[in-house]
């Protein structure tokens, strides 16, 4: 494994002030080399009742309602229209459910496995079930048989993602063999134990396992799913329609297949004179990251996930640095990168120079992009705490920053969501779109 680490600005210079100052460092970590790895994949599929409801087109739906063939109910916390009578086999083939699309996606994955790959399939609702334990890619018949059971399961009405994730992590055994170890979690609703989900995401990161999440529809918990992905170094995707499931899962398989560096972690060690205030991932997705802190904040660990050849992770680190005299230098942090048995070190050294400008003008657009992520995070936190006035205020500030950055459509979404919170005290239909679209700003 090879990494190229770049620091911007270079050289890193600070003015010799008489008080502590905030310092920004832009890190770019790029994967080099082309050695691909075998894949150990575990798919956790939400099998609650809402995932089994057929998706009827608008013309047929209006006809059913007119004839009394459908009425509205709550299923797994989701308002849905329930059919008075089951669809015939012929009608069901015309109107597949989210589970049907999941089955199609899994068949496609199985067809693309190699004998060196491993795959497990887990279904979860109120209970969780291992449909296929970790199975070699050449035993396709067993995997296909497990997939066939998925639409017929009755595991309860609610969704317990934590139980599904626990079973998923149990599929990974301790081994020295390099491999891409990835969980893909698909759900369309709420879950019972969010705290346990984030705890399991942190556990996955310590074991070199990434968790990618797929939120489907309009009622899943996007804050939880993006948090699970960020804590484990995984990817977070949004499927507005069930028909998007095969495409998203295929993209996950392709990314895993092209991975050359698996479960990369960044460990940062600081001297007593430096404190890390916050860290923002600028790419591949824009997000505020939460490192694991030890030794009273002197050592932090950050999962960066899987990297393909040529992929870069860009981070904006914000330090609070003690003063220093002109001509002196100070180590801001010692960086230690690890992936399996591989390790690489890099030192961040700042030089105190009279002509230095802080922050450097070249970093201002990057700092603005990071501010967008922090405003969105603060707005979500205020909303979760029931402080809707503050959440709306922060969203309007977010809209202003997005407009300044030239993201006019996204700015309009933020303004619309602020207005919805002011009026209804609940997130609007655009909340999920705003969350995932903001994260996608890092893709540019």
Describe this structure in words.
The chain has helices at 58-66, 89-94, 98-111, 140-149, 161-169, 194-206, 222-232, 245-257, 364-384, 388-404, 408-424, 431-439; strands at 2-8, 12-14, 21-32, 39-46, 70-75, 78-83, 118-124, 128-136, 180-187, 210-216, 236-239, 259-269, 274-283, 287-289, 292-294, 299-308, 312-321, 329-339, 342-352. The protein folds into three domains: 2-36 and 262-335, Immunoglobulin-like (Sandwich), CATH 2.60.40; 39-57 and 98-257, von Willebrand factor, type A domain (Rossmann fold), CATH 3.40.50; 364-443, no CATH class. The protein is globular and about 80 Å long. Helix 3 packs antiparallel against helix 4 (140-149), helix 6 (194-206) runs parallel beside helix 7 (222-232) and helix 11 packs antiparallel against helix 12 (431-439). It is built from twelve helices and 19 strands. Helix content is 34%, strand content 33%. The strands form four sheets. A six-stranded mixed β-sheet has the order 2-19-18-12-16-15. By secondary structure, the protein is of the alpha/beta class. The model has no long low-confidence stretch (mean pLDDT 89).
Task: Draw up the topology in text.
Elements: E1 2-8, E2 12-14, E3 21-32, E4 39-46, H1 58-66, E5 70-75, E6 78-83, H2 89-94, H3 98-111, E7 118-124, E8 128-136, H4 140-149, H5 161-169, E9 180-187, H6 194-206, E10 210-216, H7 222-232, E11 236-239, H8 245-257, E12 259-269, E13 274-283, E14 287-289, E15 292-294, E16 299-308, E17 312-321, E18 329-339, E19 342-352, H9 364-384, H10 388-404, H11 408-424, H12 431-439
Parallel strand pairs: 2-19, 4-7, 4-9, 9-10, 10-11
Antiparallel strand pairs: 1-3, 3-17, 5-6, 7-8, 12-16, 12-18, 13-14, 13-17, 15-16, 18-19
């Amino acid at each position: 494994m090879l990494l190229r680490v770049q620091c911007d600005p270079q050289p890193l210079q600070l003015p010799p002030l008489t008080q502590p100052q905030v310092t920004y460092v832009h890190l770019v970590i790029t994967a080099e080399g082309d050695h691909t790895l075998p894949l150990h994949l575990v798919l956790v599929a939400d099998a609650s009742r809402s995932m089994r409801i057929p998706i009827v087109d608008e013309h047929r739906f209006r006809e059913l309602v007119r004839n009394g063939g459908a009425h509205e109910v709550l299923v797994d916390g989701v308002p849905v229209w329930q059919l008075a009578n089951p669809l015939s086999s012929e009608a069901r083939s015309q109107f597949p459910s989210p589970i049907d699309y999941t089955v199609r996606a899994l068949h496609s994955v199985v067809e693309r496995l190699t004998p060196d790959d491993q795959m497990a399939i887990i279904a979860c609702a109120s209970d969780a079930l291992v449909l296929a334990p970790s199975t070699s890619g050449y035993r396709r018949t067993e995997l296909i048989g497990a997939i066939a059971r998925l639409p017929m399961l009755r595991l309860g009405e609610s969704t317990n993602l934590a139980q599904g994730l626990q079973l998923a992590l149990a599929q990974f055994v301790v081994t020295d063999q390099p491999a891409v170890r990835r969980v893909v979690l698909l759900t369309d609703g709420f879950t019972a134990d969010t705290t346990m989900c984030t705890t399991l995401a942190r556990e996955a990161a310590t074991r070199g396992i990434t968790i990618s999440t797929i939120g489907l529809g309009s009622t899943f918990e996007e804050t939880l799913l993006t948090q699970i992905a960020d804590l484990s170094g995984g990817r977070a995707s949004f499927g507005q329609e069930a028909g998007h499931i095969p495409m998203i899962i295929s993209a996950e398989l392709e990314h895993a297949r092209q991975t050359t560096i698996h479960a990369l972690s960044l460990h940062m060690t600081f001297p007593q004179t430096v404190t890390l205030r916050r860290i923002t991932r600028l790419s591949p997705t824009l997000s505020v990251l939460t490192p694991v802190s030890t030794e009273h904040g002197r050592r932090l660990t950050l999962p960066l996930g899987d990297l393909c050849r040529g992929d870069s992770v860009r981070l904006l680190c914000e330090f609070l640095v003690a003063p220093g005299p002109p001509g002196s230098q100070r180590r801001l942090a010692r960086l230690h990168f690890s992936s399996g048995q591989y390790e690489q070190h890099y030192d961040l050294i700042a030089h105190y120079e009279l002509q230095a400008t802080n922050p450097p003008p070249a970093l201002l657009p990057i700092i603005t992009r990071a501010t967008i992520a922090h405003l969105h995070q603060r707005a979500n936190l205020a909303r979760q705490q029931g402080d809707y006035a503050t959440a709306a205020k922060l969203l309007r500030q977010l809209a202003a920053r997005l407009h300044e950055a030239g993201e006019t459509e996204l700015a309009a979404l933020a303004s619309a969501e602020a207005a919805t919170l002011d009026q209804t005290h609940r997130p609007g239909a655009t909340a999920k779109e705003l969350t995932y679209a903001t994260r996608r700003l890092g893709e540019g």
